[in-house]
Amino acid sequence: MTGLLRRLLGAHGGADAWRRTRTISVHHRFRGALWELKDTEGLLEDARTTVRVQQQWSRQSPFGPLGYESTVTPDLVLIETGDDEDEVVEELQDPRASFAGHVLSTPWTPAQLAYFTGYTMWACLTEPWSLTFPGVRTEEVGPWVEGGKTWQRLRVVHPGGTATHSPVQTLYVDADGMLRRRDYEVDIAGSFPSVHYASGFEEHGGLVLATHHEVFPRSGDGHPVTAPVVVSIDLDRIQVDSMPPRAAPSAEASPPRRSSPRPASDRSSRAARRPRQRTR
Fold this sequence. Notes:
Layout: H1 3-11, H2 15-20, E1 21-31, H3 34-37, E2 46-52, E3 57-63, E4 68-73, E5 76-80, E6 88-93, H4 110-126, E7 137-146, E8 149-157, E9 168-173, E10 179-186, E11 192-204, E12 207-217, E13 231-242, H5 264-271
Antiparallel strand pairs: 1-2, 1-13, 2-3, 3-4, 4-5, 5-6, 7-8, 8-9, 9-10, 10-11, 11-12, 12-13
């Protein structure tokens, strides 16, 4: 672990607090130009996201006007009715492959929207802890001056199989150790170069989380193009579920593993059904 990542992790609550955390649940509001561009308005702008902190898994509801829910892992997206029947409305296996040939203006299906918002929210809520997971490589790449302030940069390379915007990203850390900015290319939208700012930091359950995010286009010189706002995310009603200190796994415990949306036997039986309802 680099010294910068260690400082970043400490400023956001410390490794012990993150290690004990099971889930984070937030109410979110999505705004920005992306949703109309992708023909997905009205599906997830005002909803709740829950993520598992130790595994890449997220759930969002209500999904669409009928109150469905989406569950996302790197390998599978399920949209289900969310009622007692819990019927599969739409299923997308190997979701990353479904974006082949996409450009920024290509519309998304509901399941593709769920994949994007699922992995985006997982990253927003689990970094910097998830940067310590097996296979993630980090390197300090020097300072960056913006708005009269100097931020230190951390280059991150995510391992294959991680659902994220792009494998290589650059994070910017302020003098207090807070994660203020991320640079990445949105590979599933034509590798659109983006600047992602985080602010409004609050402490919840021992973790320090950003409650406001804004994403802008990135120019060739690395600066943001401040109009339009591509995506904005506001978070409130934050709930953190953690194990008591004595129940938490030690640093030598098994590394985080990838999870499935539900037990394999249940998932296979539901996947055999053909979707019978529309998401919108």
